[in-house]
Amino acid sequence: MGIYGALQTAVTGMAAQSFALENISGNIANSQTTGYKRMETGFIDLIPDAAVGRQVPGAVLGYSRSTNDVRGDIVTSQTGTHVALSGSGYFVVAQKSSTSDGQAIFNDTQYFTRRGDFELDREGYLVNGAGYYLMGVPVDRSTGNVSGSVPGEIKVDNGLLDPRATKKVNYQLNLPDEVGLLVAGVGDPEFVEQTIEGGAITVYAENGAAANVQLRWGKLADTPDTWQLYYMSNADPETWAAVPDGEFEFDAGGTLVRQSATAIGAGDAVSVDIAGLTVNGTTIGNVKFDFGAGGLTQYDNANGRASVSALNQDGYPAGTLSSVAVNDSGRVVATYSNGKQIELYQIVTANFNAENQLKRMDGGVYAATAASGEAIFSLDAGMTGGALEMSNTDISEEFTKLIVTQQAYAAGTRIVSTSDEMLQEALNMVR
């Protein structure tokens, strides 16, 4: 190779160190960029072809080495739609291409990112700080299961949540073991004094109208202990009605053994149905009062009152959108003014067999390559709602690499200077 070869090799070394400096500069510049993955610099030696005894260290080439598999620190965020991936994988995102008739149009190309600073835009889409839109699959509101497998852009409708009529009331309580007065009947003037309070619950009609259902229990017999469930159908004038099949018989140990004419065994679920439930003129419809298995008992109670342990229902009135958040299961959850929380979407994540071979693009997104392999989609990735993954750049480590790079570059310049002096000496030989 000679002096010229040494000079050219030194220049490649300086170029490689300049390339390393560029990566270090980019890492430091993005030390606060959400989801940023630092770029490492690798070096490969290029050996000239020569006999074994004449081989010399050749030129050097610098190349970038991704750290996509190195996770950054996760920090909490006050924004509910921010989300961090606590495990492997990437969010699936899309890029907006244009708008037509006020509706966003997206490119068909899917991109992948760890940047989870998503927030709602004016159209209801979840978009991160780099302008990429989050993708997921819808969740069925009635079952809570995902519907579909093809990711689409997540869009939250800010319209009214439709009301839902009450179909089922979960009701569990313990009746007192002793009551001194037997109930005479719903028409008796002393009906309230003859019965005990069994709780009250607000239920909803199909149009969202609310009605308060007050419940009372009256003892029909002491041997065996037999109770009847009643509800108030009208407050003015006060009108009470016996619940159909709402007569319950208990054994000496306080265990339910019979409902009306039906024997109840251990582990049997118990319920009563009120067809066309109407309260104060508001028609609710058919409602099931579900006691479950073992949810209705008669154990000793010194205060002579019923102890209600569960009383809730599945209906709700109409509501307006109050907030949107992402939970730790990766579900996009909308909260409405009526207190109802609805899971709307499941966030989809993508994994790759060789994630460090993804192509890096602007805004912290990546594109799949032949070397990375195709995306493997999942609905079970670990996530942390209300959090962000920070850059994996370590400033102190970058400064250390900066010193090493500077010294290596300076050493290369010395080779150039020395080669120049040797060439000068060679030229001076002919003078």
TrEMBL record:
- Pfam families according to UniProt: Flg_bb_rod (PF00460), Flg_bbr_C (PF06429), FlgE_D2 (PF07559), LlgE_F_G_D1 (PF22692)
A GO cellular component annotation here is: bacterial-type flagellum basal body
Q: Which residues form a coiled coil?
A: none
The chain positions of domain Flagellar hook protein FlgE/F/G-like D1 read 84-157
Can you give the residue ranges of the Flagellar basal body rod protein N-terminal domain?
A: 7-37
* Annotated compartments: Bacterial flagellum basal body
Q: Does the keyword Cytoplasm apply?
A: no
Chain ranges of the Flagellar hook protein FlgE D2 domain: 200-316
Which InterPro entries does the record associate with it?
Falgellar_hook_FlgE_sf, Flag_bb_rod_N, Flagellar_FlgE/F/G, Flg_bb/hook_C_dom, FlgE/F/G-like, FlgE_D2, LlgE_F_G-like_D1
Keyword check for Cell wall biogenesis/degradation: no
- Positions of the Flagellar basal-body/hook protein C-terminal domain: 386-429
Q: Which GO terms describe its biological process?
A: bacterial-type flagellum-dependent swarming motility
- Which UniProt keywords are listed? Bacterial flagellum, Cell projection, Cilium, Flagellum
The record's comment on protein family reads: Belongs to the flagella basal body rod proteins family.
Summarizing the function annotation, the protein's role is: A flexible structure which links the flagellar filament to the drive apparatus in the basal body.
Q: Which PANTHER family match?
A: FLAGELLAR HOOK PROTEIN FLGE (PTHR30435:SF1), FLAGELLAR PROTEIN (PTHR30435)
Q: What is this protein called?
A: Flagellar hook protein FlgE
Question: What is the species of this protein?
Answer: Pelagibacterium lacus
